[in-house]
Amino acid sequence: MELTRRKFSIDNIKQGNSSSVKEEDDLNKRQEESTTSMNDEFMESTRIAKSLESKKCKYSKMDLEIILDASSSRQQVFEHQRELALSLIERLPIDADETHVAVGINSFTSVPTLRQTLGLGRDKQIVRRAIEDIKYNGGSTFTAQAVELSVQDLQRGRRPDAIQVVVLMNDGMSQDPWEKVLEASQLLKIQVQSYLV
């Protein structure tokens, strides 16, 4: 198909038809923009994974909570967050037979939902499925309750020899102030590394 389209474009150029050239230029520009967006997401997940990997020298285990905002103002933003979470999962050594990484997943709108408890999140396929099954809902965004739910899951399932990490992905439009999120979360009290995306 690509060869046919290019041949058609070359034939049109020979015939002096510049509208086809413009259409192909527009198509190429849209493809570049899409590729740039995907590259940005890949770079962000790589940055987070490298940051987490840098902790390897100090910790051999990680308890990770991923919080996804299913109330994002646009479904496209939510889909990007989901892809970023899946990309992060693929880069981590999650294995049912190993104890390196345990993952808890929750999503939220006005009410948070625990999708995967930290204690059960040691199988990459199950963790991936928990993320893939989260549906975009739209609606109100109450981040504090979601962070609090993840902290509760961390407190129940955390391992003393593991670093605790919370990755919060939202569109930045929370209806509760960040100060309330920090107060509710007690992140600093339990010494959790937090990443906001």
TrEMBL record:
Signal peptide: none annotated. Gene3D superfamilies: von Willebrand factor, type A domain (3.40.50.410). Coiled coil: none annotated. InterPro entries: ECM_Assembly_Org, VWF_A, vWFA_dom_sf. Residues 63-197 form the VWFA domain. It comes from the Eukaryota. It holds the Pfam family VWA. Residues 1-42 are annotated as: Disordered. PANTHER family: COLLAGEN ALPHA, PH DOMAIN-CONTAINING PROTEIN. This is VWFA domain-containing protein.
